Amino acid sequence: MSRLRTRSARFTLTVGVEPAEAFAIFSDIGRLNQLTPSWFRLDPEKGPPAQLELGSRIAYRFRWRLLRLRWQSRITDWQPPHDFAYEQERGPFCFFRHEHTFEPVPGGTRVVDVVTFATAAGGMVDRWLVEPDLRRVFEFRRALSERLFALDRRTLTERIDPLTATPPPPSLGAHALD
Questions:
Q1: How many helical (H) and strand (E) elements, i.e. helices and strands, does the chain have?
Q2: Torsion of the alpha carbons at 137, 111, 151 and 131, rounded to the nearest 10
Q3: Is pTM, for the whole model, over 0.85?
Q4: In whole angstroms, how large is the CA radius of gyration of the chain?
Q5: Domain at 2-166, CATH class
Q6: pLDDT tens per residue, range 150-170
């Protein structure tokens, strides 16, 4: 028996629009595949909710490497135009939470994504498979944002902080894996 260990990554992107517009774009479920690379295609299992809100559930299938996986997430925080978050309810992770924060800055909005996750395999799977793919997803989003917001590289900034091992979130307590 071992203790669940999460890993976290923080990705920061600055775009030249107001927080309300950035929030509307990044929370639009209809844009989910536009904001996600084709190698990680997300296919809704049922029609997604027309509009997200606190408690909304989204079920879809996605392709990760050679695997076809199912995922169900629920919106756990919803504070337009400041932040929203979702957590996996069913899927390949032992724990997965993605927080989105929209902070006003001179000339636009800083979009901060914090992803916290834990896999049953941990260690090498996280470091050599999950983490690099997570970085690729956010690198794709940065490149897309350059086009989406029609900005040049001098006005669009990105910061990807290193993934770090973290203790389990308080909501997980001392859950153990078998």
A1: 3, 11
A2: -20
A3: no
A4: 16
A5: alpha beta
A6: 644 444 444 444 444 444 444
